[in-house]
Amino acid sequence: RAKDEGRGNFKYFSEDLTEAAIRRINLESLLRRAIVKEELRIYYQPQIDINSGAIIGAEALLRWHHPEEGVIPPSQFIPVAEETGLIGEIGEWVLLEVCRQGQCWLEAGIPPLTLAVNLSPHQFRHGDIVASLAAILNETGFPAEYLELELTESALMTRESEAVQILEQLRTLGVRLAIDDFGTGYSSLAYLKRFPLDRLKIDKSFIDDIPQLEDDNEIAAAIIGIAHTLRLQVLAEGVETEDQLNFLKKHGCDFYQGFYKSPAVSAETFIALLKQCT
Ligand code: C2E
Ligand code: MG
Ligand code: MG
Ligand code: MG
């Protein structure tokens, strides 16, 4: 029993667990309410062509605008959404909103941009992502070629055997596929070769310490080399300094995103930024 003497540690441990469970349940019901109350917003982080410096697209990133707490980052609610399955509903909404926004920008005469959407492991594992995406593209009219889906290594590994098939079907729809946070999961070169991908995103953790840390310089350069050998475009995530950018440029990296250019911003701010950069 937790109350027994000599079990102090266990007692505190179990109380912590209870607290965590309560917080989780609260968060889940708050999140359900947030969906109904339309407190979720999509922000856009520019993706830049390293050589020309032009904004060629954006990654869609969720923000929760809580009336009292302010803006809550995805790290604080995506894991709960993922575990409870709420991410299915949220993820589908993100896809629909991004395709609507993209089509709206195209109709307004804004030069075509590639819009990237994160696909969670749950979305990839449950439901029929191929059919629901086909319906969304059809409903919004957004050309599939301008939509990129970002998948993590863990998402691909959870449906290892079917993953190639599902990716092929998504490719048949005409969308682009990217591997996100590359290097942080079970990176298997064998799979990388088999998956029909267009782009590889080098995780921020490998970018943080370049060009100071020689090991990381070599890892980043090696990943760029592997990507190009596999005929994949390569994008560096989390670029914050000019030194990092220069290193990546010198080593042939194709694209980047990061605070050096801009964090994720509202759709309006993104368009203002785009106009300012052309
Ligand atoms: P991610 O897909 O790897 O997105 C990149 C994250 O790095 C974003 O964090 C972005 O704001 C941050 N970032 C970009 N450049 C920099 C930089 O220069 N410095 C620093 N410190 N950070 C930078 P964010 O928006 O907090 O999102 C975190 C994660 O939440 C995302 O990682 C993604 O896994 C997940 N996420 C966000 N939106 C969605 C969504 O709509 N669906 C799903 N399934 N997951 C999402
Ligand atoms: Mg991403
Ligand atoms: Mg990433
Ligand atoms: Mg990440």
UniProtKB/TrEMBL annotation:
Residues 24-278 form the EAL domain. This is PAS domain S-box-containing protein/diguanylate cyclase (GGDEF)-like protein. It comes from Methylomonas methanica.
